[in-house]
Write a structure and sequence with these properties.
This protein is mainly α and about 280 residues long. It has one domain. It contains 10 helices and no strands.
Length: about 280
């Protein structure tokens, strides 16, 4: 396939993602805007405003898999009124608002562990909802989903690397003072808009009671008997560990502690970024 045709195919796929999951893409886009705004205005915001925006970003991040699940639920029915679909999204929005006020009034080890658990559940539900009531072929469906995810990661990585190299080249050859934060913004935009749009467009539409597709035997063995068991065991370990945290009420030290801080405490990420940027 020619380069132009390949590019047109990618654009078409992204458009399909927007058409099929408009609310999910809108939520992920809102998350991108909030993250960029938080980084840009971080030094001018009060501590209370920073905490509030960080928690809003967490809720928007949870809204991405939640809205995708709602969309898949309504996709299972061929004829459904638009009002019912809108009502489903309204219920999802109410859930997020209630979660914000009831479980994210502050960011600590308890709220983070609950947030991680709910988020993992939503992503697992996203993979299982299309197969409720179906009979056979779930393995083939999951292979398609994982293949789309891997392809999305490859495209996203190549796109980010290409743009980063272009910015670096312009900065070096033409002595243009391009702020380093533009690279970070590129990463956020690709990860929050391009990747979800492309991946969601690759989600197979299951219209029958079964889903069959022929794959190379090596790919089947890799995904079904190696990747899937590893993901299942890893998810079980995470749930067991979060349960241990809740029971013992001791926030762990070391790698897990740093992971929780980096991922879920946006203000520390912004502190590190602004310090290095202003110092440079």
């Amino acid at each position: 396939m020619k380069l132009g045709n390949r590019f047109s195919s990618i654009i078409s796929t992204i458009k399909n993602g927007f058409r099929r999951f408009p609310v999910t893409i809108a939520v992920s886009t809102a998350l991108v805007i909030m993250l960029i705004y938080l980084i840009e205005q971080y030094s001018d915001l009060t501590q209370n405003a920073r905490d509030t925006l960080s928690r809003i970003c967490m809720i928007l991040a949870m809204g991405v898999p939640l809205s995708a699940c709602i969309n898949l639920i309504f996709e299972r029915k061929e004829e459904i009124k638009k009002a019912h679909r809108i009502s489903g999204y309204i219920i999802g929005a109410i859930f997020l608002i209630l979660y914000y006020f009831l479980f994210l009034d502050e960011v600590n080890w308890i709220s983070i562990s609950k947030y991680i658990g709910v988020s993992i559940f939503l992503y697992l539900a996203f993979a299982f909802i299309p197969w409720i009531g179906k009979r056979e072929g779930y393995e083939s469906y999951i292979i398609d989903v994982l293949s789309g995810f891997i392809l999305t990661m490859i495209y996203s990585y190549v796109l980010f690397l290409g743009i980063a190299i272009i910015l670096f080249t312009i900065n070096q050859l033409f002595d243009v003072d391009i702020p380093e934060k533009f690279v970070l913004y590129t990463f956020i935009i690709i990860g929050g808009i391009f990747a979800p749009s492309y991946f969601l467009a690759k989600i197979p539409v299951v219209e029958r009671d079964s889903y069959q597709k022929d794959y190379p035997k090596a790919l089947k063995v890799l995904l079904l008997y190696i990747v899937m068991p590893l993901i299942t065991v890893y998810s079980a370990i995470l749930y067991a560990y979060f349960l241990k945290i809740i029971i013992t009420r001791n926030w762990p030290q070391g790698l897990v502690s740093q992971f929780g801080i980096v991922v879920f405490n946006c203000k520390r990420c912004c502190d590190i970024f602004h310090y290095s940027y202003l110092k440079g």
